[in-house]
């Protein structure tokens, strides 16, 4: 894990060869805790703001609290930890200590169904936006997992969408890997 200043200077580097195999995503909680998703070991790690290991949770499986290739992680309301559980085709939500709260989504292409979710982010209204990678779309859920709506670009379809970010003025930015671009959508 590399930490940079706002002008691009390297501040610090945290290496965990005994813990991490494939760190794929990172998020920072309001407490300063660093949350890391390891998609090889199917684990989520929590480090303190100085990079010291605090705890891990997860493990391989499909039961609540276990993962099958966690791809992205973000932090939501009250520092809850939200994880895209890729090959289980769902989103899992945990409290800030890693205790399982709930999950939503199931394999499929219907509304509220997911196929290999990737990026996940919480907007300024508390909605959870999910990159539904296998279905080439973005899905929006209320906190709690209720389906709200879907963003699909029929005129210029997404091909392998991955990362996602939201703005305060109701736009969503999506990294569209196979189209070699970043797309911007108005969703509010």
TrEMBL record:
GO molecular function annotation: ubiquitin protein ligase activity; zinc ion binding
Keywords: Repeat
NHL repeats: 54-97, 104-144, 145-188
Record's protein name: SMP-30/Gluconolactonase/LRE-like region domain-containing protein
Alphabetical GO biological process terms: proteasome-mediated ubiquitin-dependent protein catabolic process; protein polyubiquitination
Organism per entry: Capitella teleta (Polychaete worm)
Superkingdom, taxonomy of origin: Eukaryota
InterPro entries: 6-blade_b-propeller_TolB-like, NHL_repeat, TRIM-NHL_E3_ligases
ATP-binding listed as a keyword: no
